Amino acid sequence: MSVSGLTREQRIRARDRTVQAAVLALHREPQVHYTQGPTRWEGIDKHFNARTGDYPRHADCSSFATWCLWNGLFLGFGLGDLVNGMNWMAGYTGTMLGHGKQVQHVTNVQRGDCALYGSGFPGEHVAVVIAMKGGVPMVVSHGSEPGPFYLRYDYRSDFLEFRRYI
Predict the structure, then answer these.
(1) Are 57 and 31 in contact (CB under 8 A)?
(2) What does the alpha-carbon distance between residue 63 and residue 61 come to, in Å, rounded to a whole number?
(3) CATH of domain 8-164
(4) 127 and 61 in contact (C-beta within 8 Å)?
(5) What is the mean pLDDT of each run of 10 residues along the chain (166 residues)?
(6) How much is the CA Rg of the chain, to the nearest whole Å?
(7) pTM tops 0.90, yes or no
(8) What is the rounded distance in angstroms from the CA atom of residue 152 to the CA atom of residue 137?
(9) Beta carbons of 32 and 59 less than 8 angstroms apart
(10) Are residues 25 and 64 in contact, defined by beta-carbon separation less than 8 angstroms?
(11) Would you list the DSSP string of 18-73?
């Protein structure tokens, strides 16, 4: 059974939409700014749909990852907030750690999963897995200005776990 309750085919589409959102922002890196201020949720607040080329200009790591998953889960299938449990209106790395399902081994990681970092709960950072390259998960990380960046999941020494929401 999937975390989201979607069928196999629907999960593939949700992953495609999630990755599409992350890649769109990655390709617009100069226009995507890091903030922990009130505009960090503009991607969802303003209903920015990656399929139509819309993306947030302001986000932090958790609002960015949530926006990517919102594109796949809510815009794609009308699902409730499986990522933070806050009706797609708020959250942070700690609420993300409290939802979804831990992926037990790197070989089981899929596109659209999240890599979480920090010394433990509530975590400190999150990035979205967009590809596997030679068996290594590759992520889009938006944790600083500049950014977002395309990196190996283990670019930080404090990798905590992978989580699945789709």
Answers:
(1) yes
(2) 6
(3) 3.90.1720.10
(4) yes
(5) 93 98 98 97 98 98 98 98 98 97 97 94 94 97 96 97 98
(6) 14
(7) yes
(8) 6
(9) yes
(10) yes
(11) HHHHHHHHHHTGGG-EE--SGGGGHHHHTT--GGGT---SEE-HHHHHHHHHHIII
